[in-house]
Structures are given as C-alpha cells and as structure tokens.
Amino acid sequence: MEKNRSELKISAKGRRNGLFLLPFTIALALFLWYLIVWLGDLPSFILPTPDLVIARFLQILQDGSLLKHFGITLGEVLLGLGFGSVTAALLGYLLAKSKRLERLLAPYIVASQSVPVVAIAPLLIIWFGPGLLSKVLICALIVFFPILINTVVGVRAVPADLYDLMRSLKATRWQVFSQLEVPAAMPVLLGGLRIGATLSVIGAVVGEFVGSDRGLGFLINVGRGQYDVALVFVAVFSLVFMALMLYGLVVLLESRLLAWQQRPEDDE
Amino acid sequence: MSAADAAFLIVDRLSVSFPNGNGGLNVLDDISFSIQESEFVCLLGPSGSGKSTLLRILAGLLAYQHGEVILDRQRLDGPRSGVGIVFQKANLMPWRTVRENIQLPLDLNSGSQSISAETVEELIDLVGLSGFEDTLPRELSGGMAQRVAIARALVHDPGLLLLDEPFGALDALTRERMAGELLRIWHARQKTVFMVTHDIGEAVYLSDRVLAFSDRPAKISLDLKVDLPRPRELEMRYTPVFGEMALQLRNALRP
C-alpha cells in the first residue's frame, strides 16, 4: 500500500517534469524540421518550413475559414461521439445483462469490426448524402465498438455481493441500475470514451475525405490538390489539437466523476 | 409447541438440495430450530457445511422448497425490510463515503424517512466511526469497513440482524475486539441476532445459544445453551466452564 503510494508520487512528479520539458522538445522538433528542409534543399510544395506553416495558419485564421472548417469537423465529431457512445452504452448494457442476446448478436458485432470504416464510408455517403448525417454516422460507427466492449466489461464486473446487498435491501430494478451499476461501471465506461473521443476525429476525417465540401478533412484534400502543403500541415495540426482537447475533456470528466478512485496526493 | 409458536424466527423441517449431475447435492437436511426475540444465536459448522446457504435463505436471497421459515409470524418468501445483513466482506460501495454507505438502506427505501439524520449520527457514534463520516472506503482498515457494514445493517432498525462470518477476513486481535464491539452494540440495540461463524470460542463468547452443524448434508448436531452471565467479559474466555462448552461443540462438529 505504502509502496504503491510512493510510486504514484514519483509518476506524478514525472508527469510534471514531462510538461516542464515540453517547450524544449517542441524547440528540438522545430530545429530538426528546419534542418531536414535545409539539408534536403526541399521546395515548399514538398515540405514547407515551420514559419511558412505558421504564416498560412495566421492567414486562414484571419479570413475565418479555419474556424469555419474546424467548427464543422468538431460538430461532426461531437454528434458522432454522442450518438455512437449512447447507442453503444445502451446495447452494451443489454448485452451484459443477457447472455442470450450476446450469443445472438456477438458474431455480427465482431464481424462488423473486421470491415474497415474507410471501406464502408463511400456507401454511407451514397446512402445519406455528402452532408452532416453521413459524417456523424461514420464517427458513430468508429466510436461504437470500444464503448460497447467497455460497457459490457464494466457492467459484468459489478461484484455479485453488491447485487445481493441491493436485493436484500429490496432495491428496485431502477435503483440497482442507477445506484450500483452506473457508478460501478463508470471507470471502465469512461476508459472507452477516452478511446472513442480520439477515434471519432479519425471518423470525421475519413468521411470528409470520401465526400465533402467542408471540414478539416476537406481542407487537407484541397491542400494536397493545390500542392499547398502548408495548408495540409495547418489542417493536420488542427486535428491533433481537436483530439487532444477532446481527450482532455474526458480526463476532466473522469477527475470529476471518479474522484472516489483517486489518491489524496493526486487531488492537488 | 406453544413456546415455539411465539418464537421470533422459526425454521421448520427445512431441506435444501442443489441440482448437480447425480441427482442433486443435499446441503441442508431437515433442519428445525427457533430463535426468541432479542436472542443472540450463533451457528457453527465446518466450511462448506451449508451455513451460508441457511443464512442466504433467512435473508430471503435464496428460495427454498421443502420446509418452512417463519419470521415474525409470517412465512418468509423474499427479502424483508425488517432484516439487516452483514456479509463476510464489508461490501461497501467505494464511491460512497462512510455516512453515505450507512444511509444506503434509507436512500433505497423512501418509506423510511421517519429515521432522522440524528439516528444516523447516533449509529455512527455507536459503531465508533465518529470523525470518519466523510471518509471513503479505500481509506478504511478492514475492521473499520466492517463497522460501517454493521451500522448499515442497523440503520433501518431491523428486528433481525444476520451476520455471515462478519469477522472472517480480520486478523485475530481485531477479530476479538470486534466481537466485543458487536456485544456492546447488541446490548445497546437489543436485536435478535443470528450469526454464522466457524470460530468456536467466538460463538460461545457471543451467544445465548450455539447451534452446531454436522458435515454435509447439514443437520443440527448440538443446540447448546450458553450459561454465562452478561455482560460477557474477555476473561470468561479462559475459564473452565467456557473450555468445557467449547470442547462439547468441538465434538459435535466432528463428523
């Protein structure tokens, strides 16, 4: 127990050191970037220097187009993540509670996972049009599986003894769900949401690649077509930023909902 | 039979068998006994002898087909709100604080609002957890967690307290201290207590009566009245009378 705590302390300190080192690693990466461009004598339509990327970034930030495309992709990502995780959590709960349903559906669910989303994205675009709906569905599809699995695992892991306790206290079905199953499965469920949040960004880009006239994925397509590699870089970094932001939000949610799991040292 | 009719808990010719490959495994074989109100009764038995099965039936968690269980003049056919249970593990919800865990039975049963916040505070005091009300279970020792479990079992003021080897997971010294605490709580609350244990000394020290189970299929091989004065003192555990009773029980457990 004590050992565990001191280990945790070290890792917390390590994390802080990592953040402290971040400016240096960024500076090093930029330096290497410049070095590659200079040594390879690369033209800007192959690899632009960081300052060209920043200039391009400021330019489309000022004319408002970056924010527009960022907002569109973020909307697709959030709607897809919300829709996908709610349906996955619901189905996951039913699967966790019913062995028969699991035997019935498991083969289809596993089979659906062997088909890459990229392969069925064109179909969804054909069926649901090049607008928002098809992108949301692609995001939801990619998010679905990890959240489904984590819900099943989380609900199955609720201790049988606690079910006995609830039953002996004559808890209703709803009380067992809300007072026991939801809080007990929450840590694993949020773990699934962490994975889902970043996957959802990938889903939106895949959808925009296949067919769209807006969004960051579309921007990458445009940049590639016009040999505007700086624009591609701006869009890619925007996607990275979006994924980090979503991941951070889930971590924040975890620290709120799972405060009971944390060690006092981590609270500060 | 008139004395037994008035008993608080009556178990009458109860038999239980679990289905398995060859015809079924007899766990309880024609068990009959009764417990008076505010009596403290321990059930002793070798592990795997069906003690916990009997306790689960009394808790209403396990259905039975053969025989009769009558609690407070009514046939038992499911969990009752007049019963409090302490399991072998404390079974606390890790996301609830000590106070919230103790209040769980009240939260689940909106009909029990007659029990005030003061009652909860009194109970926290009684089990010796004052100052730990807002502590989370992960910060509690095994003994403290089991105190929370006892308080939780008592909070809705049940007539019958069932304990399933409640101190089984504790070290010997903590175990002895918790037994003393349980007696103190019992004196303060005067509940009918039915406790399952495999510790002979603990059973004699705590009980008015000790029932001994034989090996499976379980029968009651001895129903021993413990004639020690109350309140019990720790020193009593080392008297010849105590030793004699322990030996008698030890022999009854031998198959």
Tell the overall outline of chain A: elongated
Low-confidence stretches of chain B: none
Give the CATH topology of the domain at 1-79 and 184-223 and 243-255 in chain B.
Rossmann fold
Can you tell me the number of structural domains of chain A?
2
Helix content of chain B: 25-40%
Outline:
The complex is a heterodimer of chains A (268) and B (255). By secondary structure, chain A is mainly alpha-helical.
Structural overview:
The complex is a heterodimer of chains A (268) and B (255). With 268 residues, chain A is an all-alpha fold. Chain A has two domains: 41 residues, no CATH class; 219 residues, MetI-like fold. Chain A is built from eleven helices and no strands. In chain A, helix 5 packs across helix 6. The longest helix of chain A has 39 residues. Chain A is elongated. In chain A, 32% of the residues are buried. Chain B has a domain of 132 residues: Rossmann fold (3-Layer(aba) Sandwich), CATH 3.40.50.300. The longest helix of chain B has 18 residues. Helix content of chain B is 33%, strand content 24%. Chain B is an alpha/beta fold. In chain B, strand 4 and strand 5 form a beta hairpin. The model of chain B has no long low-confidence stretch (mean pLDDT 88). In chain B, helix 7 crosses helix 8. At the A-B interface, helix 7 and helix 8 of A face helix 3 of B.
